[in-house]
Q: What sequence folds into this?
DNA sequence: TATGTTAGTTACCTTTGGTAAGTCAAAAGT
DNA sequence: ACTTTTGACTTACCAAAGGTAACTAACATA
């Protein structure tokens, strides 16, 4: 039963709130799904693939994902530096849920846009 | 192929970014999954069920969900007012993806917490 | 007359997100 | 010898989103 976890109780950390605190970070889903698609990637590859993320936001996003054990980081002692990011097993296990969301998003994009236009024009 | 949608292109709205702009809102997942569980609910019922959401954040969350066509709002002309919220068909179709995420969250909560502790103590 | 009920709104402050420029250390170009 | 490039970041600074507490409308009840 998931219901029990939904009501807020300050004595117990809620898994849904904990996950959504992370998933809700603006770039987390794009980083995870991009890594999931391409496997291991370097910092700048991710930066270019996603396109509109800043370097700052990419570093903070990757740090949080490492902290949560969803992404692993491998640094090579070279100059210029080389750093590779990969999904951990836990990250991989989250991936299908994220791609599920993405597929829903693609399928329902036009429905959402229609609804937004109607809502605005009804004002 | 979802890949094409992941790279940012300002001329086409990206479904993943569009959805995550909404899903990423701190309370959206909790509101949708609570409505999905209980069916129709009134404003204060949602407020009490979730527990730690403010009235302001509940109203802005519900407004955005209406705008996107995920939640419908029915107001009765009574005093004190009565307003009922329900998932639309589109909202219902999103629900399984959200409960999938929640189940993952419940199953992996301890793994995430362990990882966070290790990360912090390694500093 | 004061109090409660429901679904909000408003004013205000804090936290998060975003932009642009700077850093580091070495190799490669001129 | 001096400047530029490279990759993976920081830092300083500004804008947007989120949070809190108090206030509102309109009537019913004590």
A:
């Amino acid at each position: 039963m998931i219901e029990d976890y939904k009501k807020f109780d300050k004595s117990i950390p809620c898994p849904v709130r904990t996950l959504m605190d992370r998933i809700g970070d603006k770039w987390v889903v794009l980083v995870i799904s991009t890594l999931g698609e391409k496997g291991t990637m370097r910092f700048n590859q991710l930066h270019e693939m996603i396109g509109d993320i800043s370097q700052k936001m990419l570093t903070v996003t990757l740090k949080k994902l490492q902290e949560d054990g969803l992404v692993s980081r491998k640094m090579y002692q070279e100059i210029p530096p080389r750093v590779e990011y990969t999904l951990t097993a836990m990250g991989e296990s989250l991936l299908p849920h994220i791609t599920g969301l993405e597929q829903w998003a693609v399928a329902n994009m036009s429905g959402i846009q229609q609804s937004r236009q109607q809502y605005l024009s009804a004002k």
Observations:
- Helices of chain B lie at 3-6, 15-23, 28-38, 43-50, 55-67, 89-121.
- Chain B has one domain: 3-93.
- The beta strands of chain B are 41-42, 71-76, 82-87.
